[in-house]
Structures are given as C-alpha cells and as structure tokens.
Amino acid sequence: MAEQVIIRWSRAEDLPALTALNNSVWNEKNSPHVTPMTAAEYAERSPPGSELVAIADGAVAGFIVFRSASRMASHAHVAELAIAVHPAFQGLGIGRKLVEAACVEAKAQGKRKLSLRVMATNEKAIAFYEKLGFQVQGRLVEEFYAGGRYVDDILMYKMLT
Fold it and tell me: How would DSSP label each residue in 28-62?
C-alpha cells in the first residue's frame, strides 16, 4: 500500500523509471501499437516537465500525459490523455489522483475538454474512466486488429467547465 503519493511534473531523473513503466504496461489488450521505446525515444516524445508523475513510496508509480488534441487553433481547447499506473500500484487511487491533477493543470492551461481513446477490450480502464466522469462520445468499430481479433476503439471525454 502506498503511504504517500506525490503528483509532480516529470524530471530528467525519472526517465529510466518512466521508460520502464511505459514499456511494461502496454499490451495488445490496451494498445493498438505495442513497441518498446528506448530512454532516448521516450525523452523525445515526453521530455522532462511534459507529463505528471505519481511518486509513491519513493518510486514512479504512474504517469499521465495530456497534450493538445491537434495543432489547429480551433481545437486548442481540447487535451488528449494517456495514463499508465504500475501494476503494483493499481487499485490504490493513484490513477484517480493523476486524472484529477491533469484536470486541474489542463483547466489552468485553458483547456475545456479532456478526451481519450480506449480499446473496447480494456474493460477495466473503461470502468475507471466512467467512474471519474468520462462519457463515451463515439465508437470506431473494428478500428484495430490486435491479439488475433478486430477491436473497437472507444472515444471518451470529460468537460472541465
């Protein structure tokens, strides 16, 4: 059980743990493209200070990324989320704390809406997002072929206003 959880912006020293976490949590049930990254690739995609990190019991327990949904000015009010919590720390409220912190930060950056995509095979994540107030806004039927089958991609959102 995590005694204390600190949510903060990522730092350079977090890079090895963030890379390892990223490479360990994605699989054919929760991601349409599973490709392990090197620390350099991870740093290029998510440089220090670009994602919120949960530190529990002195270890990186999870992260959440929220980025502009596109480069269009007309879309600047929307941020897309991606979240990962280390399996050893799941069920302890860390994911909820990360999403809540992302909501605060995104709102402070002028975002009005959070969106995310989740594969239909990831029922645990769908239930988690719904518990936090996310709603389904669409379904891309048979969007991916993963794990030997076609999988729907579910689009979810939460308004910050």
Answer: TTT-S------HHHHHHHS-TTSSEEEEETTEEEE
Q: Which amino acid is at 24?
A: S
In the numeric block, which tokens belong to residue 114?
């959070």
What is this structure's pTM?
0.89
- In tens, the pLDDT along 84-106 reads 999 999 999 999 999 999 999 99
Angle at CA of residue 120, ends 89 and 105, nearest 5°: 50
Residue 133's identity, in one-letter code, is G
For 102, the 3-state DSSP assignment is helix
Alpha-carbon span 136 to 22, nearest angstrom: 25
Neighbours of 88 (CB within 10 A): 12
Model pLDDT for residues 49-63, shown as the tens digit of each residue: 999 999 998 999 999
Measured CA to CA in angstroms, residue 66 lies from 45, 131, 149, 160 at distances of 12, 19, 29, 13
Instruction: Quickly tell me which residue has 């959070």 as its tokens.
Output: 114
Among 156, 140, 133, CA closest to 32? 140
